[in-house]
Amino acid sequence: MFNAIEIREPLLSSDPIAMCELLVGLGDVTVLDVTDIGERLRVTIETRADRPPCPQCGGPVVVKDRDLVELTDLPCFGAPAVLAWRKIRWRCLQGCGSLTEQAPGIATARLRITDRAARWATIQVGRHGRSVSEVAADLGCGWHTVMDTVAAYGQVLIEDPGRFGDVAAVGLDETLRCRLGRWRRQQWTTQIVDVGAGQLLEVVEGRSTEGPIAWLAERPKTWRNRVEWATLDLSGPYRKVFDVSCPTPPRSPTRSIS
After folding, report:
1. Is 230 exposed, middle or buried (0-12, 13-18, 19+ CB in 10 A)?
2. β-strand 256-257 against 29-36: which pairing, if any?
3. pTM (predicted TM-score)
4. N or C, fewer C-beta in 10 Å, the chain?
5. Cα–Cα distance measured from residue 224 to residue 134, given in angstroms and rounded to the nearest whole number
6. What is the gyration radius of the CA atoms in the chain, in angstroms?
7. pLDDT tens digits along 175-214
8. For helices 132-139 and 143-159, what crossing angle results, to 10°?
9. Which residues, 6+ apart, have CB-to-CB distance to 34 below 8 Å?
């Protein structure tokens, strides 16, 4: 006995504008033009969002003008793409001033890159370890565009307290970061690691107790309560970190691994 298979009709459209809008893949957006500008494609759009009230008085607003903002977008058909957004500038009829429309689904303010391209670039650099210049070359934009994007989107991920999860074993180790100045003065850092997951949690300045203790103090007490094991070299300062910061500090030798 064969199971019935539902066959769905493909989504078809004979309207070229509607087809472009489907390819662009942004909601409530009208595609006005697609232009080949040398080695890149430029897709010009405007939103179909409802007219907002004035944020100050709540009164009606009218269109004052439109600014054409060009944003780096994901490559299209193997070529770098630019999304040209005709952003509406509204004017309050009560004289409160003007405001420019915002659409976070298209792009965040102050970045010259679309939200989807920004997320992709952050994953490429942060998760896959690609260089900023390499990702910029794929997107057809400058190094600073990608670097500013990764810094802005990555900072939110770094500050997310839930990114660590439960950690049962914390490791500390020192690393010589660089040598500075005429006398090649050594600059050290301490790596804080989730030993079980093999994940770097943080890098703090120096190789003393201050940095790790300050970092652990920022973690919730419930999080620190779950730390059962410490992995560290034969370092008195590092042992002190756990004695001070963990409610049930690791005991040598059964709970401290050197």
Report:
1. buried
2. unpaired
3. 0.65
4. N
5. 39
6. 26
7. 887 888 788 888 889 888 988 888 888 888 888 888 888 9
8. 120
9. 20, 41, 42, 43, 44
